[in-house]
């Protein structure tokens, strides 16, 4: 049995020595901005402390919707918030189409994974010319019409009679992929979860599971008689859950909603190239985020001026990539959701989404000491401004405190690296693939800066070089 240490005073009377215990901090999370209970469950499982709804100083801030730039600008360096500024450039359907069109013009071979798209009313004439060319060749295609900023399948329709399109309304028109890969005769799409932890430099992770979402009517090639059968043509869960044929079977290989983990095993069992499938999906995701990178980086630097490249990012984002496979198993990008649902209507939702959230918070590597360290740095900076450069004690190389901090930093980096290697898709370990991505990044920045003010071009001069120095 360990006894507390004692000392004797001059009279020989022993007294206890009270050793001062080091106060242990804790991580706080403000989840007032989310309606999803699974977020709170994961916060508790990570042993984060739920902050008051009005607490703006929490280590983690989680919001379902995107946040104002002013909010990001006000955050302290130790804080993390789950949205980047500028990500709407690939998450709004019209913005995605516009930005993708520029990269397709620059890099057509690398950006062949999005269906032909027109933004109305601006590109109405181009669409009409395309249709005339189809008629001249005696071809007929089906097109899908989507609201420019819609979600959950609202307002989507299929057309083959192009004259019925309203010319003045704001929407997008895409070629319909009429030869999809089918599962038991049903059309389906795949929801992948992507984590972006930094834009300066870019860091991207792909979660190794997700959702397979199936239509609820057997698929047939579109014709005039079945264009309105949305349960056949659309794979949105929010649409198909209303069909009486929707199956809520919790067995892994049954039901209208399944896991990508199950689908991967299905591919392997049927002798498909699983490594190529995941490699193709990873490339699609990275190439899409390369399109967004100049916009996100510029917006982030506007919010956080003076923050050196490579420093910890205030922002992170979990994105939902919706991808469909054609009959040759080629992935095609449908859309990106910057506020993916974390609803848990079924057990499969709970299992997959809980895994996404747990892995996200582990990869962020938030520490209770982050806040203390940041406050200490602010105090030291204030002293420097008040009393001059020599007023604060510097840690010299070789001192015990310097060595301790260096050891802690190295250990933290190693812990984070071991977690990241299993999921990271950018930057990749493959040097040839990295060179290709860097070439695409360079093209994306050139496209972004073309025709912009000289001051902006100077400000973002060679950002790729600076990012490479931080990888």
From TrEMBL:
<protein>
    <submittedName>
        <fullName>Tubulin tyrosine ligase-like family, member 7</fullName>
    </submittedName>
</protein>
<keyword id="KW-0547">Nucleotide-binding</keyword>
<feature type="region of interest" description="Disordered">
    <location>
        <begin position="1"/>
        <end position="20"/>
    </location>
</feature>
<dbReference type="GO" id="GO:0000226">
    <property type="term" value="P:microtubule cytoskeleton organization"/>
</dbReference>
<dbReference type="InterPro" id="IPR004344">
    <property type="entry name" value="TTL/TTLL_fam"/>
</dbReference>
<keyword id="KW-0067">ATP-binding</keyword>
<dbReference type="GO" id="GO:0005524">
    <property type="term" value="F:ATP binding"/>
</dbReference>
<comment type="similarity">
    <text>Belongs to the tubulin--tyrosine ligase family.</text>
</comment>
<keyword id="KW-0436">Ligase</keyword>
<dbReference type="GO" id="GO:0036064">
    <property type="term" value="C:ciliary basal body"/>
</dbReference>
<feature type="compositionally biased region" description="Polar residues">
    <location>
        <begin position="1"/>
        <end position="12"/>
    </location>
</feature>
<dbReference type="GO" id="GO:0005874">
    <property type="term" value="C:microtubule"/>
</dbReference>
<dbReference type="GO" id="GO:0070740">
    <property type="term" value="F:tubulin-glutamic acid ligase activity"/>
</dbReference>
<keyword id="KW-0175">Coiled coil</keyword>
<dbReference type="Pfam" id="PF03133">
    <property type="entry name" value="TTL"/>
</dbReference>
<dbReference type="GO" id="GO:0015631">
    <property type="term" value="F:tubulin binding"/>
</dbReference>
<keyword id="KW-0493">Microtubule</keyword>
<feature type="coiled-coil region">
    <location>
        <begin position="361"/>
        <end position="419"/>
    </location>
</feature>
């Amino acid at each position: 049995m360990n006894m507390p240490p004692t000392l004797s005073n001059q009279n020989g009377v022993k007294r206890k020595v009270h050793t001062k215990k080091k106060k242990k901090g804790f991580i706080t999370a403000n989840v007032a901005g989310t309606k999803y209970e699974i977020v709170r469950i994961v916060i508790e499982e990570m042993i984060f402390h739920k902050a008051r709804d009005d607490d703006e100083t929490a280590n983690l801030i989680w919001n379902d919707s995107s946040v104002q730039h002013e909010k990001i600008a006000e955050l302290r360096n130790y804080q993390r918030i789950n949205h980047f500024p500028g990500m709407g450039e690939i998450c709004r359907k019209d913005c995605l189409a516009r930005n993708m069109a520029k990269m397709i013009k620059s890099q057509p071979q690398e950006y062949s994974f999005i269906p032909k798209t027109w933004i109305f009313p601006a590109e109405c004439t181009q669409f009409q010319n395309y249709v005339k060319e189809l008629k001249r060749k005696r071809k007929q295609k089906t097109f899908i019409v989507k609201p420019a900023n819609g979600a959950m399948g609202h307002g989507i329709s299929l057309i083959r009679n192009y004259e019925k399109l309203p010319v003045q309304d704001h929407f997008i028109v895409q070629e319909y992929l009429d030869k999809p890969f089918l599962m038991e005769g049903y059309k389906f799409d795949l929801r992948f979860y992507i984590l972006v932890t930094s834009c300066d430099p870019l860091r991207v992770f792909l979660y190794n599971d997700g959702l397979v979402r199936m239509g609820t009517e057997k698929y047939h090639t579109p014709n005039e008689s079945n264009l309105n059968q949305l349960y056949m043509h659309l794979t949105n869960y929010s649409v198909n859950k209303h069909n009486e044929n929707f199956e809520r079977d919790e067995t892994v290989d049954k039901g209208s909603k399944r896991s990508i983990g199950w689908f991967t095993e299905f591919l392997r069992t049927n002798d498909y190239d699983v490594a190529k499938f995941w490699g193709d999906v990873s490339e699609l995701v990275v190439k899409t985020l390369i399109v967004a990178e100049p916009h996100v980086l510029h917006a982030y630097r506007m919010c956080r001026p003076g923050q050196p490249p490579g420093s910890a990012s205030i922002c992170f984002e979990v994105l939902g990539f919706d991808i469909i496979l054609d009959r040759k198993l080629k992935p095609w990008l449908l859309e990106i959701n910057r506020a993916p649902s974390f609803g848990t209507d079924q057990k499969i939702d709970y299992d997959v989404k809980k895994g996404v959230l747990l892995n996200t918070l582990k990869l962020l590597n938030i520490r209770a000491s982050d806040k203390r360290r940041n406050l200490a740095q602010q105090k030291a900076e204030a002293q420097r401004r008040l009393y001059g450069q020599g007023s604060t004690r510097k840690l010299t190389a070789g001192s015990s405190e310097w060595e301790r901090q260096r050891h802690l930093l190295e250990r933290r980096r190693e812990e984070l690296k071991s977690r990241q290697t299993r999921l990271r898709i950018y930057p990749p370990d493959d040097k040839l693939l990295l060179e290709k991505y860097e070439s695409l990044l360079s093209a994306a920045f050139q496209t972004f800066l073309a025709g912009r003010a000289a001051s902006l071009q100077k400000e973002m001069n060679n950002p790729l070089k600076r990012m490479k120095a931080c990888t």
